[in-house]
Specification:
This protein has four helices and no strands. It has 109 residues and is an all-alpha fold.
């Protein structure tokens, strides 16, 4: 059984690792509405229930997604959405590498 919170964490993990990290690799540092919509469309393929969300709920999910990205410092604000690559120490990077190397993507490395 998957707890509700775990799905939310997975949603944010996926958007950062699949969308934001890919944009950084391509030296494209602006997160657009189109980026979000393409990501959400891919989610619907695996989770058709997401398509049942009302238009209002979909707008709220999008808004809160960008708000969380802003509050975590991944983007500058919800209007411009300029991606910020975090500066982390070598020691922190080594710790992540030793414990959960897949999470390096969250640091946009």
């Amino acid at each position: 059984m998957v707890k509700e919170g775990h799905r939310a964490y997975r949603f944010f993990y996926d958007i950062v690792t699949e969308v934001v990290a890919q944009k950084v690799v391509l030296f494209d540092y602006t997160l657009t509405d189109m980026d979000y919509h393409v990501f959400f469309s891919r989610i619907v393929v695996d989770h058709p229930e997401a398509e049942q969300l009302t238009t209002l709920t979909q707008k709220k999910v999008k808004h809160y997604t960008f708000k969380v990205l802003e509050q975590t410092g991944i983007i500058n604000n919800v209007k411009e959405r300029i991606i910020h690559v975090p500066q982390v120490s070598d020691a922190f990077t080594s710790l992540i590498t030793a414990t959960r190397p897949q999470d390096l993507k969250l640091l946009l490395i």
